[in-house]
Specification:
Oligomer: homodimer
CATH topology of chain A: Glutamine Phosphoribosylpyrophosphate, subunit 1, domain 1
CATH class of chain A: Alpha Beta
Strand content of chain A: 15-25%
Radius of gyration of chain A: 20 Å
CATH architecture of chain A: 4-Layer Sandwich
Largest sheet of chain A: 8 strands, mixed
Distance between the termini of chain A: 41 Å
């Protein structure tokens, strides 16, 4: 109660100073971009995604509405998606070519440009929580592998066996891929490998095998189920975070853009907060998240203009697919993608939820 | 010979079209920025650095002068520095808190914006060669840890025991740190830990203990001995690469900016090629290498203006120290740093070598 009164007083003072509007806030989330179409996603499954995205938005909203930070709001939203097997992050992450979940995440604070990132962790229940601890409790930005897990244990974060992440759906998917690789000729193996690494969008993907043959409910989330969130809080601070299991059947310790500050995640109060999802290699090569910020800062573009220019210009021209969500300091937001769909949603200061998954 | 004639013909055609100058090329390298001062570096050691930097420049020059690519030239220069114990990369890398060398590297092709990066590899003789293979021979950009080493073995790259990297100087340095940590009070441990992570520059570093107590010859290279190279070749293509052992006594699988595309390395024919060295955490949080490129592209700054703005503006304002080398498509180059010195050098199309190490 005391807080509410104080907030009102501050708001009045701002009004007196000529700022007509009360402090605003907003949360925007994504659950991955890819071949998400009405015909490949049952209505029942659509309802599940809508319910989970809404739950994540409301969790972050409670924090923002109570005067909490954008960092805490995005972590609250992302952990809910990490815990849901609907997305390729945390529980339900895709499996490597040896059947293991290897998780990546990153977070950035727009007020300080402090950041935290982790890659290839296998036993930390919430990779985004670990990224936040790296930012807050270590002198470093990026920790990887077993070293990152040792830090997580020192921090008292919840540790789990890798089995926790491996859902029966992902194990079936893994087994199907493994069998097809074993059965196929070497040229088919190359095709399958390639199909696992590209988006199943007609006209851009050289091979549609996975899209046409596999369980469509799984396909929708399997290669682009990365989750992320960006927020503006009542203090005017931006934050961004991203969490992922990477690509199915990955090997050689492959890391995508999700733990790369400037590619998968970026936040700067002077411009915007961005979280990416898609073919990580292209997002790294385009420094996509930072490029949107740079276009705003140096070329004077709006967030929506910059996000569209990078996704429909740079990324598309490179042959990459995926999308971003973004928010600026005025609470304007953007959701740009060049895939068939993107699981996405936003909640505003009045608690109005808007969740979508198919084309723009 | 045939190639030389062809190159001459092309050059003449360009002259006829009004382009007065023959194709130019240039290589720029660095061997780390930090507390490099005449009073902390013996003349004998200075001569060793000058000789090795010159050797690296000449190796890259031979490739560029023969019509080779900027990518091959930077790899040739970097591998020579990796093999030298003078620098904190490859052989002579600093050791982690368990006495192991963990190496990071990245490379980027300005013509295609293709890139390769490796982090935390312990058995690959040349991390920059592995980064180049990741770029050329895998569908990925970043591979880490044992997975990256498995890829290196598949590629037939030279593997070594970790002992290869551990020079007697680094083992002595490691032992000295370990003893000081064991003997010191917890507050001294904190100070030492901090001193290991910041640059020993008066006025910016909160603790000068390492600078004043340790072997000055070692100090000069120990925290900022990352190596890197950028080049423009006769075909007009830019490339950049970086290789490092990271920071001494690092733990938790810490990774700095050197393997992060956009922070430690960036190359884009439309703007510039950049290699960074310094306190990696700040370079990641500033997306330093990509930010220089973005300032050129979107704000119309020259390479030197952009490099100075980022190093003496953004980086310094964040409290970070280090430097960058850069080159643009006209062969203009930049060497910017906010530390006392930076090991650096350049060689132009006429084979003129310019090597420096102290203040600008």
């Amino acid at each position: 109660m005391a807080f509410v009164l104080l907030a009102t007083a501050v708001s009045s003072a701002q009004d007196a100073a000529g700022q007509a509007e009360a402090p605003t806030f907003r949360l925007v989330i994504h659950g991955g971009a890819g071949g998400i179409r009405p015909e490949t996603l049952s209505e029942e499954r659509q309802a599940e995604y809508e319910a989970k995205l809404t739950e994540a938005l409301r969790a972050g909203y409670e924090i923002l509405a109570g005067g909490g930070t954008s960092l805490d709001a995005i972590v609250a939203a992302i952990t809910i998606m990490e815990e849901s097997p609907l997305f390729n992050a945390g529980r339900g992450a895709v499996l490597t070519n040896t059947g293991v979940a290897e998780l990546d995440a990153s977070i950035m604070d727009g007020a300080t440009r402090n950041a935290g990132a982790v890659a290839s962790v296998k036993r930390v229940k919430s990779p985004i929580l670990l990224a936040q601890r790296v930012m807050d409790e270590s002198p470093h930005v990026m920790l990887i592998g077993e070293g990152a897990e040792a830090f997580a244990e020192e921090q008292g974060l919840e540790m789990v066996e890798n089995e926790y992440f491996r859902t029966s759906q992902r194990l079936e998917q893994f087994e199907r891929y493994r069998q097809r690789l074993e059965e196929g000729s070497s040229s088919e193996q190359g095709k399958l490998r390639r199909s696992l690494e590209v988006s199943p969008i007609p006209g851009t993907a050289p091979d549609d095998a996975v899209t046409s043959n596999a369980d469509p409910d799984i396909v929708a989330g399997e290669k682009h189920g990365t989750v992320g969130a960006v927020a503006l809080d009542q203090h005017g601070n931006l934050a961004a975070g991203t969490s992922t299991g990477g690509i199915a059947f990955k090997r050689w310790g492959r890391v995508g853009d999700s733990p790369i500050i400037g590619a998968g995640t970026w936040a700067d109060n002077e411009t915007c907060a961005i979280s990416s999802t898609g073919e990580g290699e292209y997002f790294i090569r385009g420094a996509v998240a930072h490029d949107i910020s740079a276009m705003m800062r140096y070329a004077g573009l709006s967030l929506r203009e910059a996000a569209a220019a990078v996704i429909h210009g740079t990324l598309t021209n490179m042959g990459g697919t995926g999308g971003v969500i973004g928010i600026d300091r005025e609470g304007n937001y953007a959701m740009a993608f060049n895939t068939a769909g993107m699981f996405r949603g936003t909640i505003d200061a009045d608690g109005r939820v808007d969740v979508k998954m198919f084309g723009q």
